[in-house]
């Protein structure tokens, strides 16, 4: 203290012994200190006061302080009222003096997120005791700890033995792996003969006078399946709509030599048959729109019912299978197919009305057998567009199996969107999506047909 009663300015010494005022903590600054601006201090003061002032709102909800009290606390910062008051002190008891006035005890700011951000330097000053690190090492690895006893594995001859090997059952594979395996099975990239070849050519007429039951789809997909598995196959498109030609991506616009030329103008089949791109061992005799007139023109032609049979018989090449895709009618084109074939394959759609009209087809087949082709028989029935979600599909299947017995293939073709998409890409479903259920089902149907043909000698058809 000086003689005039003044005291020296309090001096603060920094760590290096140099006097400094800047290193003084703002937390304990006097409100009038030029270093500590009101904006720095105000929130600090405001935050620590309510503990005394009983600023708790009646509802205890932040921001609902009594208006009178709020008015007294004019130094409130922007976060005023953002924090619930602590339940202490008398109600409405406002502080009577500045909290950080000289001589008052320095108020420690409460630790919350906002305060920590504002009082960064102070946070550094307050020593946080080092936290013990969590030990993640298992006790057994701690030096000196006894290792846990390990139970011996049961040996193969032990009754309690359980194999730890990964199971190799196919159904345990992920769906993608199963699909890939199915695709390889369907496409048969090695080209080996995996479907038995018949001793003699099997000529199969795919017929049903109902339209849209899957005749063309069946003819195309069975032909591709058999060709992919080592059989030589010819598809004859006998429907003026030319759907089978489209499905195999064979040109069939006006002017292309087609089956009409064979039937009406006696052009040899070999001259109109085209190879199917991408499928070795598969040929197609296309149909153009010209065929639409053939039904009428055939009426006046000699031996009009057996024009196709003669054309096939004159074909120099040998095939394992000839599939004839019939139009949805029982006219002369279908009769030509029935006379040329040994077997009839009837696709039946698993829908209502499926069996209606079948009697008429069976009657026609019987007439052809009696008068024109004694070797003809209905050898195969294939259920198509089976929708397992409906009881109707089940009922139709039962009806068909009861009526036709073992002529009905075990393989059933499900309704499958990939089957219906394939023709628009000029492909069979076998190549369009070989892993699909549609492709697998046609593959199974083809295999069944091939195996039946191998078991029962084809000579019976002769
Ligand atoms: P048809 O030759 O008897 O008139 P299609 O074979 O042309 O019958 O088939 C009729 C329609 O049904 C076609 O659009 C075809 O793509 C579709 N289709 C055939 N079979 C299936 C199936 N299994 N799943 C879904 N759609 C199919
Ligand atoms: Mg058709």
From TrEMBL:
Biased composition (Basic and acidic residues) is annotated at 1-11
| Entries under InterPro entries matching the protein | AAA_dom, DNA_Partitioning_ATPase, P-loop_NTPase
Q: Which residues form the AAA domain?
A: 202-378
Which Pfam families would you find in this protein's record? AAA_31
Question: Region (Disordered): which ranges?
Answer: 1-118
Which protein family is it in?
A: Belongs to the ParA family.
Q: What does this protein do?
A: May play a role in septum formation.
Stated name of the protein = Chromosome partitioning protein
Can you name the source organism? Micromonospora siamensis
